[in-house]
Design a protein that fits this description.
Blueprint (H helix, E strand, L loop, with lengths): L13 E7 L10 H18 L3 E6 L3 E6 L7 H23 L21 E5 L2 H17 L14 H5 L24
Antiparallel strand pairs: 1-3, 1-4, 2-3
Helix pairs in contact: 1-2
Length: about 180
């Protein structure tokens, strides 16, 4: 029996989000796919006006630390992000097809992502730092690289080296002041 996930939106908290590929397959296992995901993430950041505080793209899952978007909520952002990536991935695969290569693409998965995602509200500076460290150390812990700056698909390089990547980190100007009018 599945429990209904309780999500807490509208509090102004940051959200630490984890999303896995379908059946934990390494569908983000190539540099091209991870780069495509980052391109789609930046497009969604602009469309929904949220802040990306941190991220890491692993071969079979992603971690994001984001603000609540100006438009909609984190669930809508994740739906658009997952759908946008899946559509672009399938379009790329179809574009490469030729009759001689058709059999090579028979193994393309029907699903890219697991249906749900994990969302943890981050409400303190201590938790924000903890989640960023966890994300940035993930490729090292998994043995993909020797040190975090060697993994190109992480926000670590923006923090440590000051690099500007595809995804803009900590662009707080997208947030607009939300003024609540007190009830009479």
């Amino acid at each position: 029996m599945r429990r209904k996930l309780k999500r807490y939106y509208g509090t102004g908290d940051l959200h630490f989000i984890t999303c896995s590929c379908h059946q934990r397959q390494p569908l983000l296992g190539t540099p091209q796919r991870r780069n495509l995901f980052l391109t789609v993430l930046e497009q969604m950041r602009i469309r929904y006006q949220f802040i990306v505080v941190g991220y890491v793209i692993m071969p079979e899952h992603i971690h994001l630390l984001i603000s609540e978007p100006q438009e909609k909520n984190p669930s809508t952002v994740m739906q658009a992000l997952k759908l946008g990536f899946a559509r672009r991935l399938l379009v790329q695969a179809k574009r490469r097809r030729s009759p001689a290569q058709a059999a090579l693409f028979d193994h393309l998965p029907q699903h890219i992502w697991q249906k749900r995602f994990y969302d943890f509200n981050v409400w303190t500076e201590h938790k924000r730092i903890e989640k960023l460290r966890y994300m940035h150390r993930n490729p090292v812990q998994r043995g993909l690289v020797e040190s975090p700056e060697l993994w190109r698909w992480s926000s670590y390089r923006a923090y440590f080296l000051g690099e500007t990547g595809v995804v803009k980190i900590n662009k707080w100007e997208v947030l607009k002041m939300k003024i609540r009018i007190p009830a009479a």
